[in-house]
Amino acid sequence: MSHAIRRFRPEDRDKVIAFAATLPEQDLLFLSRDVREPRVVAAWLAAIESGEIDSLVAEDGGEIVATAALVRDPLSWSAHVGEVRLLVSPARRGAGLGNDLLQGIFMIAKERGLAKLTARMTVDQAASIALFEGVGFRAEAMLKDQVRGADGQSHDIAILSYDSARVAARHAAIGIE
After folding, report:
1. Which residues in 104-137 belong to E strands, given as ranges?
2. Residue 119, domain extent
3. Beta strands in the chain, from DSSP E residues, in sequence order
């Protein structure tokens, strides 16, 4: 299956909402807002416009099959940190699409001069955790009962981080540029 990765544009709003509606609720729990809601996607687009979020989409046959976002607050004490959010269609998992999007996010983070990236996900998302760890993220914290699904059940959230300087030093030590 092929896909094209590009920036999320305002005309993608309805396609992103349709994509989000196909995802299991478990996939959305780590997000602070429900991206199946048009108002939330409108706020997402406004944050892109204001420069607080950079976002990519993967498109195949005119449909959005994955999204990635790099969220930052340039006015905060943590302006050097960006949060990575990644959503991939269940049908497209395991084929490298998530990795391709993460590589795009790394390029954007470097352009933005970010020193650290974080990612949150529910602890039972073993494949997602493995994907992030495979590109250099490390477990940093776990928040017990941090989110509740529509069924009222609580879930723990894992927080992973990527320290650009630490990874660069490790790469230099083994001869990778």
Report:
1. 116-122
2. 4-173
3. 4-7, 53-60, 63-71, 81-88, 116-122, 138-148, 154-163
Mean pLDDT of the chain: 89
pLDDT tens for each residue of 63-114: 999 999 999 998 899 999 999 999 999 999 888 999 999 999 999 999 999 9
| Global pTM value | 0.89
Length of the chain: 177
The CATH number that applies at residue 104 is 3.40.630.30
Contact 48, 72 (CB under 8 A): no
Instruction: Bin 114: left if φ > 0, else alpha if -120 < ψ < 50, else beta.
Output: beta
Our count of domains for the chain comes to: 1
Region class of 117: left (phi > 0), else alpha (psi between -120 and 50), else beta: beta
